[in-house]
Amino acid sequence: MSPLRGTSRQYWVAIRAMLVLTLLLGVLYPLVITVVGQVAAPAQANGSLVRIDGKVVGSSLIGQGFTDADGRAQPEWFQSRPSAAGDGWDAAASSGSNLGPNSDDLVAAVGDRQSAIEKTDGAALADIPADAVTASGSGLDPHISPAYARLQVERVAQARDLPVAEVSGLVESMIQGRDLGYLGEPTVNVLQLNIALAEMDSGNQ
Amino acid sequence: MPPLLLLILQLATLALLLGIVYRPLGDYMATVFTTRKDLAVERGLYRVIGVKSDSDQSWPSYFRSVIAFSAVGIVLVYAVQRLQEYLPYALGLPAVPENLSFNTAISFVTNTNWQSYSPELTVGYTVQMLGLAVQNFVSAAVGIAVAIALVRGFARRSSPTIGNFWVDLFRGTIRILLPLAAVFAVVLVVGGVIQNFSDYTDASTIAGGTQAIPGGPAASQEAIKLLGTNGGGFFNVNSAHPFENPTGWTNLVEIFLMLVIPFALPRTFGRMVGDNRQGYAILATMVAFFIVSVAAMTAFELAGSGSATSLAGGSMEGKEQRFGIVGSTIFGTTSTLTSTGAVNSMHDSYTALGGGMAMINMMLGEVAPGGVGAGLYGILVIAIIAVFIAGLMVGRTPEYLGKKIGTREIKLASLYILVTPTLVLVGTALSFAIPAVRDDVEGTSIWNSGLHGFSEVLYAFTSAANNNGSAFAGLTANTPWFNTALAVAMFLGRFLPILFVLALAGSLAAQDRVPVTAGTLPTHKPLFIGLLFGTVLIVSALTYFPVLALGPLAEGLN
Amino acid sequence: MSTITEPTPTPSSAPSSHPSTTKTGGGAFSPKQLVTALPGALRKLDPRSMWRNPVMFIVEVGAAITTVLAVVEPFAPALRESGGTEMAPSFTIGIAIWLWLTVIFANLAESVAEGRGKAQAQSLRATRTTTAAQRVVAYDAVTDASAEHAIVEETASADLHLGDTVVVVAGELIPGDGDIVWGIASVDESAITGESAPVVRESGGDRSAVTGGTRVLSDRIVVRITSKPGETFVDRMIRLVEGASRQKTPNEIALNILLATLSIVFLVVVLTIGPIAGYSDAAPSVVVLIALLVCLIPTTIGALLSAIGIAGMDRLVQHNVLAMSGRAVEAAGDVTTLLLDKTGTITYGNRQASEFLPLTGVGAAELAIAARASSLSDPTPEGKSVVDLADRQGHGEDTASGSMERPGEVVPFTAQTRMSGVDYADGSMVRKGAASMAVEWVRSAGPVASGTIAELDQIVTRVSEDGGTPLVVATRSASGDARILGVIHLKDVVKTGLVERFADLRRMGIRTVMITGDNPLTAKAIAAEAGVDDYLAEATPEDKMALIRREQEGGNLVAMTGDGTNDAPALAQADVGVAMNTGTSAAKEAGNMVDLDSDPTKLIDIVRIGKQLLITRGSLTTFSIANDVAKYFAIIPAMFAGAYPGLEALNLMQLHSPGSAILSAVIFNAIIIVILIPLALRGVRYRAASASGILGRNLLIYGLGGVIAPFIGIKLIDIVVSLLPGF
């Protein structure tokens, strides 16, 4: 067999192999996984959507903003971590800030966030946890640290005219520990907390 | 719970899981690549593609097959991107631009999975599945095949052949990657990773806003993205996205997936050369690097130095609350040491030295444990260098596993270790040396100013040449310069080493085996493990020390 | 024309007579050698010759550029600026000087090594002077073997061709390498071997080879020339000891590739620093970059590599061994199977009578006397030892006084009869020889009792099992009655100290196989006594060849010695074939080494030297690369600390200033070459030990030591440099 024929034969084999594999791995495999996923865990497979009265209000896994149209934090909701996704919590454009550890922009942003929290939540600078003033990696972090949740209790209670102890109790009940006790960090899911908060609030009225 | 304890417990869990599968998976892979029996489905496929499964190839023929298959892959991935608007499930997205398509095609075929693009804004489900997910499988299978070919070089005696590429490719895909990926894709779905063909779901939030919640076949791609040490995310932020990596435990599963094949391949190697202790020695070297590296990165991140980081009170910028610092650094270390390049936190926002560790991990040459297959062949090449120097030091013509390390072997190993440093350094230097390019790099691409901006460029070339694919993602890489230069770095960083490795395999296979005597340097004892560790370290440290000094070190020590 | 040179007692040839007792390394290294080698070192600065050593060539180019910059700098002070630091005015000139010194030191190492071979070459060259040769025109080996009737023409020795035949008479120099085809002569070979005692060379057999340039002391011989002009043994020897024809060995080539690769990597590193550092306006000056490059590329090993190779050959020459190629020396280090001829290597060449074993009914005295008688005219050492034994036992007088002291015809040993003895005038005879032949001889005179045969068999077997050689003594009286008297136990005496040496070899992973023509029983006993791992008994040249092939098929590397023409195929087949200088030219051509002392145990020294050569290279390579760590920590902070003061944290050695740090690293880099020259010439110490043991030790000394030493060295140099004005 001449080298040329050998080479062209190789390519002919390669093309057929690639098509066969594309069929197997690019079509068959995802379809099978989809079918199995939709049967075995439909809620998760479809995005862990949270519905209120049948209407989708978000996903328990996707962080969202509790801000007004101008992007200002609404004091009656627990606030998520800062987001760099799109204009903020844009689930169609996940993104971190990618600002470096010595970035002047980041120093300014962190400083602004800290003074905002100082102002709205009346917290001492030393008590503000890092997650409260840093943008998450995805921009869609659904969680905040328990410390940040606790920090917001007073403000939220005040804004909603609820007893601090009740809101505080709600927060404590919503704290999720680490998986298996040592995987990841303790979290509070902001959307779920706010939904529970809203329920509690409406129940009180 | 103190972070140190968290780290130890998570590493212990990984060690336990990986320890459990080391033998069975390693042995299984050895059987897959040594058995003469084909599965019924394989026999059918071989008939379709026109391959005789019992005919072995010489190394040049094997290499030509690798190149032919990869070339077809590049064309295919390029084509589906360019034709996106005509494909179903495109989500209304237009054709991907030429320059970007080219970069992405090279990127996925070379197992790098560098993403100059933001997937949500660029590629629909069809491109993800037909183009990218397929390459996630086959580029990994190519890596394994090449590694197995090299191992055969050691195992065979006076043989003109090193195996059949097509058989290795199909067996690796069908018997190893596909079943594992399928199982773990379902596990990930249960954990919350999405798997559907829906378009965006519009949500009206309780605060009165709206949010478009994405859909897509993410889990099927996520599993193989990690298992094949590919790393190309379904979403822009990769495994930081809650739909790719929703919980603390899926995070551990994903880390496990990245490590499972690279850490089991040494067993396959030991098994195939008939001495499991050789596998343990390679494994021990890899593990040593992993532990040192993960400890260092975690320590730097916990220390949280840097003006912004310390002001915030901790290195949480770019990190997800559910993972925390420890969950992020284990993932980050794993991803950069395995050539996966997936991220669950933004490396650009790591502390200077923490991000520097990510770079150092890649600069080690992706050998501890490295990408699937690529890690094993990489460390075996370094082992050849170590054996050569050690062999001289004991007064014998050096030999490894009974194969003489002569002029030809050293020449090939030398060429191998020459490739990536040259690509990294020359690529980085050209970015600043060509005035027009420099203006573009500094004006358009670099996101963070000053030293950190330099680190972004250095990281990009380090990642591309080592086929890692992670990034200091602030860098805007979707420019003609980076799309082209990084594509070249990825292509040469993948296929030149493969060329040298296969030539090495051919040269070793052709040799007879020298019997072991008391004068033979034992390559399974702690002394050799230490030597191999030192060689990996010295080869990379000596090369990259100056650029590290100008980037992360200068930033971190100021 | 006086061309016979007495062995010159130079350091390089003095140890020749007792090679095994001198430490490998020969003459001590003295600073004086550096001075004598200096002119040669300067001559080697010619870029055309530097080019062959890429690592040092880079240094030379760097030195040249730096020199130009040093000249230009006073007119352009801005050049002094480097990475935000202003260097001292004398910085560039200092670097330039030390870079040139680095190159010169490297050349010095090579020159010193070559110089050590020069003395020997000089004396050899004297023998190469063109002499007049008596060439036989149309030599006819059949009708006129002695060439007495042939036409002889005078030719210059340089014009002799392969296959020419020459006549050499006493007092003449042999004009070229060849084989004696007719005649016997005593030859003075001192010019080559250093051994002043003349040796006998004769046609036919295994001592027929003569070397050009040696002198015939007696008689007349006809020699067929076996070498081409300019390629005689002496020519090759001169080239070897001078290092001129040194070809790089496979391992050396491989190492060179690795070193070149490292150099390329560092070249890329240094070339890319400029633009990269330019991004942060910290670009170092060209001088600083050159300094960094020179410190990073493996100059230490690059400078010493060829000296190590030459010194390795030189060590062999000091052991009076000529390797035909460096490849052979390296192969010697790799040998895994050593074939050793029993006689002369494991045992003293001659067996000695240790006991007389009479048959039942034969008096001890009778046997002793007969044995003595059979050996009186036997010139072999064995024969003498029989006489000695009889004398010691007090049977000497019997003969002296008496009965058997009478004239007789000596019957010499032949391969056919395998017996020797004496035939007396009265018809009585005495014989000693191999058992089967002796019995046959007795039988031919009449029947032998079966009991006698059985008893004899028993004794013969016992002697064999003990590793001895049984010689049966028989007599035939004048009346024709023949009878067997008994057996002489000839014992092989195993050399002392061999057991330890073989144990050493075993530790080094080398298997020893004894080759002997003895029967398996004898071979086994001697093998056990000497401590060899295996033996090949009743070996024919074909067996030997087959054994080598078998070993090689198993992947072993085989070394052997040989001298005879029938050894030639095996010598050629073996990976390391050491021909004895006394051997035939066929053997010498077939082997890849020649032992001038014709000492078969030399093989063990050769293996050792081969290993030492590789170990020295490996260790110094490791040292050289390990040095880079400290140099980095000296230079990198110095390069960039001006722009990034934080990098001062990497200045672990607390070096005085950027300028002093860089200059100190360059000075260390140069001085270390000179410091290591003696080690390169002497070779790294080598003890027989397992590979792990050797590696551990060398890694500790040259690896860890290589990391630590420059930290100390550079710091000390920096203390001195910091005293210079401007630093």
TrEMBL record, chain A:
Source organism (scientific name): Orlajensenia leifsoniae
MF-aspect GO terms: ATP binding; P-type potassium transmembrane transporter activity
Low complexity bias (residue ranges): 83-97
Membrane-topology annotation of the record: Single-pass membrane protein
Family classification: Belongs to the KdpC family.
Keywords carried by this UniProt record: ATP-binding, Cell membrane, Ion transport, Membrane, Nucleotide-binding, Potassium, Potassium transport, Transmembrane, Transmembrane helix, Transport
Membrane-spanning parts: 12-32
HAMAP family linked: KdpC
Binding partners and assembly: The system is composed of three essential subunits: KdpA, KdpB and KdpC.
Function noted in UniProt: Part of the high-affinity ATP-driven potassium transport (or Kdp) system, which catalyzes the hydrolysis of ATP coupled with the electrogenic transport of potassium into the cytoplasm. This subunit acts as a catalytic chaperone that increases the ATP-binding affinity of the ATP-hydrolyzing subunit KdpB by the formation of a transient KdpB/KdpC/ATP ternary complex.
Annotated stretches, region: Disordered: 80-100
UniProt-recorded name of the protein: Potassium-transporting ATPase KdpC subunit
Xref: InterPro entries: KdpC
Subcellular location(s) per record: Cell membrane
Gene encoding the protein: kdpC
Gene Ontology CC entries for this record: plasma membrane
From TrEMBL, chain B:
Keyword Transmembrane part of the UniProt annotation: yes
TM stretches of this protein: 62-80, 129-155, 176-194, 249-269, 281-303, 374-394, 415-437, 485-506, 527-549
GO CC annotation: plasma membrane
GO MF, one example: potassium ion binding
Similarity comment text for this entry: Belongs to the KdpA family.
Protein's job: Part of the high-affinity ATP-driven potassium transport (or Kdp) system, which catalyzes the hydrolysis of ATP coupled with the electrogenic transport of potassium into the cytoplasm. This subunit binds the extracellular potassium ions and delivers the ions to the membrane domain of KdpB through an intramembrane tunnel.
NCBIfam families referenced in this protein's UniProt entry, alphabetically: kdpA
HAMAP family: KdpA
Subunit and partners: The system is composed of three essential subunits: KdpA, KdpB and KdpC.
Name listed for the protein in its UniProt record: Potassium-transporting ATPase potassium-binding subunit
TrEMBL record, chain C:
GO CC, any one term: plasma membrane
Composition-biased stretches (Low complexity): 1-23
Membrane topology of this protein: Multi-pass membrane protein
Disordered, as annotated region: 1-31, 376-408
Primary location group: membrane
Catalytic activity: K(+)(out) + ATP + H2O = K(+)(in) + ADP + phosphate + H(+)
Residues annotated as binding ATP: 378, 382, 413-420, 432
P-type ATPase A domain: residues covered: 152-242
Gene Ontology MF, one: P-type potassium transmembrane transporter activity
Keyword terms, alphabetized: ATP-binding, Cell membrane, Ion transport, Magnesium, Membrane, Metal-binding, Nucleotide-binding, Phosphoprotein, Potassium, Potassium transport, Translocase, Transmembrane, Transmembrane helix, Transport
Residue stretches spanning the membrane: 55-76, 88-109, 253-274, 286-310, 629-647, 659-679, 699-724
Listed CDD domains: P-type_ATPase_K (cd02078)
PANTHER family according to UniProt: POTASSIUM-TRANSPORTING ATPASE ATP-BINDING SUBUNIT
Protein name, UniProt field: Potassium-transporting ATPase ATP-binding subunit
Organism annotation: Orlajensenia leifsoniae
Gene assigned in the entry: kdpB
